[in-house]
Each structure stands twice: as structure tokens, then as C-alpha cells.
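Extended Data, panel c. Modelled sequence:
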Amino acid sequence: MKYDKNLFIKNIYVLAKDKKIKIGELEANCNVSTGYFARFRQVEGKSAPGADVLMNAADQLSVSVDALLSFDFTQATEPEKKLLNFLAKLRLETETRKLHWQQEAPVAPHPLLVSSQNLMTEEEKAQDELPDDVSVSVLQYRSVFRPDLNYLPPVALYRCFFPEKRILYLAAAVRSDKVVPGQKNPVDLELVMLDPRVPDPLPLVRMDHEGHGCLDMALDGLLTVVKKAISLPALMPEVETIIDDYLN
């Protein structure tokens, strides 16, 4: 596995300091000797840490391996670090089934969707034998980050219930201005919260395809975990307890 060893080591020290984790403690939890990271920090040209160390370090620091290897946390703002920690916790609690996600059908009325009238083409009207002035109503995603952007229907909406009657939405939508025929369409991921005390949806974090930093990777990782959690069979807590007791 080839990567920038210097960037990895810098990230280790920055994130450990942010999380108030001592380097010696991190090394112990990564099953390496005391001074392991310091030696890589000081000696140029030394072989880089292996995959097991990378995965253990990323787990201890609550970041993805991709982010640890490719994003410069020394340049990250405090809000970016806070959002990254938030996304890491969402991912962990989704994996451990503390958060339960559902895929929601895009049906009106919906706080994140808007209905728009689209005129059909002449060919479509002729095919269906419809009048010339007919139009169809379609539901499009309405971004709370960039309301000026237009998205293609349908949007994939994933929902989970949060404390204090809040609802968290992970939306995956395709921008109409980014569609290139014959190519895979880039998907915008946005995390939005509905709070009963606030009239409008609250923007949390969105994907930035241009920068493609750690937040992009964290959002993409969260989507992967959410999809996997939804595909697994859901068990009632009582049933899960019975199964655990039997297996143990």
C-alpha cells in the first residue's frame, strides 16, 4: 500500500492532540511498541506503517483510513474537525445498531422535496396519445445548502430518528447540470436535520466534489454503512436478547 507517510504521521499527531489521546496510549492500542510513530516522524525513507496499523489508528482516532491518508488535518478548520467527529459517531452508532435508518419513499408533501411541472416532449405525448398542453408533476430534491441548484428525480432519502424528536436525513441526489451522457453521474450527498423547534430544515454537511476532502469521504462512508444496515434483517430488542442468551 503506497501513501504519503509524512502526511499520515502528521495527521496522527494532530488528531491525537485534538482527542486528548497520548501518543503512547495510541501506540499501545495499535499494538505497536512505544516510540513507533516518533521513529517514523524522525527518520526519512523508512518503510511506512502496514495496513493493520493504519486501520487500528483510524479506528482509535474515529476517522476513515482514506481520510487519514489523504486529507491534511493540519489544514482542517475546527468546524470541519467537529463535523468529521459527528459523522464518525453516526457511522459507529449505525454499525452497532444504536441508530436505525430507513429508506424513505419520495412522496409529497415532504420538507426536502418540491413539486415542479415538467412539459413532456412531443415524442412522449405522441407515444402516450396525450394532448399537446399536457404536463407532468415531478418531485425534485430541494437543497437547503444550495437552493439555486436543480436535481434530477428520484432522490434517495435515508432517515433516522434522533433525540428530542429530531429527524436526520441523508439525501443522495444527482445535479441536472452535472449529467454527462454515457458517464456515471456524480451523486451529491447532504446531511440535513429536522428539528421541531425550527421551522426550516437545518443543513449539517454536504459533499464538495471540487475539494474532495475528509468530509466527502466520511459522508460516502456513512452512506455505505447506512445501506448495509438497511439491508440487514431488523430484530426487535427482545428477540435479539433471546438470541444472544442462546448463543452465549
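The radius of gyration is 23 Å. This feature is highlighted in the accompanying rendering.
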